[in-house]
Structures are given as C-alpha cells and as structure tokens.
Design brief:
By secondary structure, the chain is α/β, with parallel strands linked by helices. 21% of the residues lie in helices and 36% in strands. It is built from 5 helices and 11 strands; from the N terminus they run βββββαββαβαβαβαβ. It is globular and about 50 Å long. The two termini are 25 Å apart.
Length: 245
C-alpha cells in the first residue's frame, strides 16, 4: 500500500481511563484510507526539547473495513510532543498525517490459532487485528492476554465480553499487576498468563505488542515451549521514542 498524506477531522473524543484517550478521525482528503490491520499513522509535531519537528507514530485501533474513519488510542505522556499534541485536539479540529505505515500486520491464515499478548495501549494494533481475525471465515481459536496495572486502568472489557458471545472461539484474559482487594480476575504480569495457560505452541502464531521487557520475557517463554511464528511491535512511554503507549 502506498503511503499518502491525509487530512482528517476529529469526530469523537473519549477518555477511557486515567491518562488514556481514544479519538476518531473522519477522513476528509482523501475520504478513505486503505490499511492492513496492525498498521499505524505518522503525525508531524514540534518537539520543544529538540527545537524541531519530528514524526510520531500511532497505531490504528479500528478494523480496516472502516475506511472513512480511523480510531487512535494513546496515553498521556508528560513531555511527549506527540501525546501533548493529540491530547490538545478538540472536537472538529483538523489534522494531517501520513499513512499507512508499518509491517506489524495480521498475516497468518485462519488455519492457525492466534494468540495476542498486550500491555497497556499496546492493545491498539491488536484490537484492529482482532476484529479482522474474527471476520475471517473458518478462523480457529483466538486468545487475547492483556496486562494492565489496576481496576482504574480497565477499558474495552465489555466490548471484548460481547465478542466472546458472538464468536465462541474467542477468549480473552485481562490480568492486573496491582489489583484491589475486590478483583476476581487473574493477578500478576501478563507473562504469567502465557506461562500458565499455554501448554503447546503447535499450529499457533503469536502477536506481541507492548513494552520491550514484556516482549523479551514472553518470547523467551514461548521459545521454551517450542517453535512457532512470533510477530512483535515494541511501544515506549519515553518522549522521543515510538509512541502509542
């Protein structure tokens, strides 16, 4: 897919959790964007620390079938030029970006089982992949393991619960590393879920997205269980790095 420059208008803003925001961008010119599940856009913003414009990348969280509107999911990062730019956007504001970009895409056929593993807003590209995966005819088992910190950081839970009803081969687990006393779900880091709940990696493909420590640890756990495809994308929360978390 050729990379083009797009102009879009902010059509929806929603705060999902403290410091986590989701926005919809309605395409203006061109009016549609063709992209593969997992790809991202690049936004040019001014970085005051560097004294120049820089590109910041944000994964598309919506499925490719929605060509006229895309969804972005991102954290508030103090001192992050891209984060501050997006958080200051108001409804109906217009912005420009380049897209589609990135090779972290859903690429395996429906015959394999797919396991998605995310931390934080690393869920963004995996959400796009998940919807595309569930729309495939004959798709096998699909699992999502998602690590967050505490109950206040939860979002997308009801949405994913609905998907388990309409797609019986889909299961998801959200684990909290710092839960409150009332939390009844899995506790600990997402690596523990992979270690405990995956016994075999035969005919399985993994998609990992989140901070680098998680990706390294989960990759090590998977490789101890056997050989299988592992696709990964690292998100960072430090200003100046690849954004999205």
């Amino acid at each position: 897919m050729a990379v083009n420059r797009f102009r879009a208008q902010v059509s929806r803003i929603e705060d999902l959790a403290p410091g986590v925001r989701e926005i919809d961008l309605s395409l203006v010119d061109p009016p549609e964007l063709e992209f593969a599940a997992g790809q991202h856009i690049s936004v040019e913003v001014f970085d005051e620390r560097l004294g120049r414009k820089v590109l910041r990348s944000y994964s598309i969280a919506s499925p490719p079938r929605k060509k006229d509107t895309i969804t972005l999911l991102f954290n508030s990062v103090p001192g992050g030029s891209g984060s501050e730019y997006l958080f200051h956007l108001q409804a109906h504001a217009q912005m420009e970006f380049e897209a589609p970009k990135g090779s972290f895409v859903l690429k395996d056929g429906p015959d394999r089982d797919v396991i998605f593993v995310a931390t934080g807003t690393g869920i963004a590209p995996l959400r796009s992949m998940l919807y595309s995966r569930l729309e495939e005819r004959g798709a096998g088992r699909t699992l999502l393991f998602w690590g967050l910190r505490s109950e206040k950081d939860l979002y997308y839970q009801e949405e994913f619960e609905r998907l388990t009803v309409t797609h019986p081969k889909f299961t998801f687990f959200t684990t909290l590393s710092r839960p409150g006393a009332g939390w009844a779900g899995p506790v600990g880091r997402v690596t523990r879920l992979v270690e405990q709940r995956i016994s075999s990696v035969d005919s399985v493909v993994f998609y990992l997205c989140g901070h680098g420590g998680m990706i390294a640890d989960v990759t090590h756990i998977i490789q101890k269980k056997g050989l299988c495809p592992i696709h990964q994308e690292t998100f960072y929360d430090e200003p100046g790095e690849k954004t999205g978390v």
